[in-house]
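# step 3/5: fold
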Amino acid sequence: MVEKEFGGRSLFETISTIEGLMAINTDTSSAHTRSLKLDIREITRRLNGALGATLVASLAGSKDLKLPYRWAKAEGPTPKDEATRRLQFAYEQWTRLAEAEGEHVARAWFIGANPWLGYETPVTAIREDRFTEAGTAAQAVIDDTFSG
C-alpha cells in the first residue's frame, strides 16, 4: 500500500484531523442552536442551577444578586438585551464544556483565572462582552490545549 503524505502527515492522520475539526464545529453550532431555542427564563434557570445566581448576576452585568432568580420566574422581569446576550453566550459555553468535560470542569472554567483571558475569569470576560476570547478559551479546554 502506498502512503502519501500531506504536510508531513499520512492520509489517515489528515482525515482524522479533518473529522475532528468537523466534530468541533458541529458541537459548537449544536450548542449554539440549542441555546437559541430555549427561552431566556429557562437559560437563566439552568445557569442559576449550574453556577448559582451570584455568578449569573455577575456575568450578566447585574449588581442585583437576586435578579437572576426573578429573571427565571415566568412573571419576573425580562433581562435587558445586553444581559440576554451574555446569558445566552454563557449557557452555550456551559453546555459545550459540561458535555465535553463534565459539570465540575465547566464550573471551574467559569470561575478560574484563565491564561487565555490574561488571567481574568471567564465570568469577567463575558460581562465585558469579550465573547470571541471567552469562546476560544472554552475551546482550548475542550481541545486539551488549555495551559491553565
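# step 4/5: annotate
Strands lie at 5-6, 9-10.
# step 5/5: archive (pending)
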